[in-house]
Amino acid sequence: MSQRSHILMTRTWMKQVREVAYDAEDCIDIFWYHNGHRNCNHNPIEGWLRKIIRPLKTLRAMHNLAIEIRDLKARALKVSERRLRYKVEAAFGGASDAYTAGHSSPDYNDLDRWLPALNIDESWLVGVSEKTKSVIRLLEDGNLTHLKVVPIVGFGGLGKTTLAVTIYKSPTVMRIQTRAFLAVSQHYDLRILLQTLLRQLIPITGDPRSSGEEMDPLRGIETWDISELIGRCRTQLENKRYFIVLDDLWSPEDWAHLKVAFPDNEKQIAALIPMIFTTWSLCPLKNLRSCSIKRAFKLDTCPPLYHDLEAISNSILKKCGGLPLAIVSIGGMLARVKNKTRAEWEKVCDRLGSGLETNATIGGMRRILSLGYHDLPYHLKACFLYLSVFPEDYEIKRGPLVRRWAAEGFISGIHESNVEEAAAKCLDEFVSRSIVTPTRIASTGLVRCCKVHDIMLEVITSKSIQENFISFIGNRQYSAMGHDKIRRLSIHNDSCGGDKEQEDPNTNFSHTRSLLILRCCKKPLPISFAHLKLLRVLDLEGCQWLSNEDLKKICKLTLLRYLCLRRTNVTQLPKLVGRLNELVTLDVRDTSIRDLPETITWLGKLKHLLGGRYRHWTSINRVKIFEPHHALRIPRGLRNMKCIQKIAHVDIASSSHAMEEVGALSQVTKLFAINHEFGGEKWKPFAASLNMLRESIRHLSIIHWRYKDVGLEIFLELESPPVFLEKMYLWGKLSVLPPWILSLNYLTDLSLRENFLDGELLRQLGKLPSLVSLKLYHASFMGTKLWFEQGLFPRLKQLIVDNAPNLDELRFDGGASNLERLTLAFLREPAEGIFGIKELLRLREIDFFGEIIFNSLVKGIIAEAKMHPNRPRLE
């Protein structure tokens, strides 16, 4: 039998084993589904009646389940016999790698792909500096009074987006006041793209208590038609010098559709477009030599056997064909090798085959990227495949991702006290292996958001389909068709409201255990929630079609562990939510849900209760404000939710009984509370409970939303303050800073707003040993001078100063020596000025935001930035 026949037979056998395992798990879930219906009622009388009637209704289901279990045992025996009969193990050891090395999926197209690089460190890049200067010269040369377009072309992995981002962040471009960076992609939605452009071009200004367009000029943007969106874009750009990056643009026709939004006026204008269809091309990196092993393969120091490894590293680089994506991917794998010996690296080199050294094709790079998958530990492979549920160019948020991984059961078997923490470590592992690229990084170094390179996404998607791990609707390359049973389903935006005829209306969704529908304004295929009895994970973020009636059906899915209703139009949770016995995460952020039903307290396994709404004031989301009237009202009975860890945000004025009970919940780590009534009486139950949570709380937010009402005095003298607190947000007037804050040795992130504190604030906070981020929002500081003296804030990396009303001088005099990000907003120009920027030797970014930007102030900062050794970027 040929090797290929062995491989195909092994794949068939593996599919049979996988389907038996899936069906066995379905049987267990069906049993728990019926068992859950028996135990989901907390009304004693109704529960007694159900105990009599329910067994009669479920008797047939249990009988069918017994028959299915018997059939499963027979199937398992047959599969085992086939393995012995056809000697599958003879090919099993190398089947996966051999198949990957010789297989090129017919579904792949040699398409242009872009490399997410929004936080890339240019010091690691080869040849980018010269290319950046070359493109900037193209932008500046010639006619400066008409629209200038500079396409960057080449196939995926060459670093087109890396180059575009480097140019976008260069000092030359940073001086252009109006800028935007848009990810277009092959299947872009013109309406969403124009909305994204306007959100970058038009900042949200005004007081949070204002209303209408005075507060938010983009209010109602979701309802604007295409012509109005284009008109607003042209109005915003008219008579301005602007710089726009359109990333991942595919055809001249796409550019023809988009360019109507960009007026050609009498200013110097530039558009930088990484694309596939013009003659100015980006080539693979040449003459790399070894790039030094340290630089090419991301090693902090060169191995002791540097000269022994140099030759083999050159061979690996040659097979990478000069493609940055391939180099980074293989580099991430080599960095994980424990024994950095020539023999180990030669194994990697041999596995690359001919690689890309003779022909830099997409197929060759796909083969290289596949090695990263086979190099993963077993428990990471399911998490890796799950990344394919997200559409192209999607920014993946850390929190929701790790909570979904945990809900899917991917982290089971790992010995960790907290499953979500173990899932977070998996994401960090992917970052270190360059499987995902960070797009937002906190000052603490924590990766907040990430993206998957499009070619890597194709590799993941292909493997997911091979293993029937994920099915897709709304993707032109992949479809739910062809799978015997759909286990996990991802519905993308382009399936909503159209192309329904492309899918089989008889497709069976009853075995679906995970359903992800993102950004769908119209209801997709006629999937009935009532038929999804095995569903564990349901993410409906941004689904505007979702109704309160749909929620009633969803709340009958008793196996649900994860339910996200974020950014939907639902207004009320039904009482049926109490049936969701297995629910771990309930996310109702950015909805109109305020009052939670009393049955919410029946959810004994719930860990994450997330509500409320933020408004972001900068494009990079570093400056945000909670909208006070969007907090949740929780009923009595919170003490029954023994597993609860995160509660955000709760209205304490309407949840006083719940606040008395929260102190009994020893697992709570995150607690956000708000009061918008006058006086501090409503805080008493909350403060009493806070004293009981001193060892568990890690993240605390206290908001007293009354401008000049001294309502937080009760927190000045807590009996037992939270000793392990890491993040704190304190909004409300205080006579003095609570003294216990100065003893928080673990505090890394502190945000203050409308506290009206005096000039001693910095001297008090400057001694906190772990403080990395300090955000002084509106009216938190009332002094005239912010002076960062020598020795203060030893670890501070991020500082936000937002509209300190009396500020005359901001001075850095030896303090905050590790500061990297400085964000400033002023209602009036400081009379004395800003001094000491040059003393901040690690400074990388300076951001201005707000209603008024003073030219003299900005010019002074720009002048200092030019002389600074780091040349910090200005926004």
UniProtKB/TrEMBL annotation:
Residues 137-271 form the NB-ARC domain. Keywords: Coiled coil, Leucine-rich repeat, Nucleotide-binding, Plant defense, Repeat. Residues 511-874 form the Disease resistance R13L4/SHOC-2-like LRR domain. It comes from the Eukaryota. GO terms for biological process: defense response to bacterium; innate immune response-activating signaling pathway; plant-type hypersensitive response. GO terms for molecular function: ADP binding. It holds the Pfam family WHD_DRP. InterPro entries: Apaf_helical, Disease_R_plants, LRR_dom_sf, LRR_R13L4/SHOC2-like, NB-ARC, P-loop_NTPase, RX-like_CC, Rx_N. Residues 10-43 form the Disease resistance N-terminal domain. Residues 389-460 form the Disease resistance protein winged helix domain. Belongs to the disease resistance NB-LRR family. This is NB-ARC domain-containing protein.
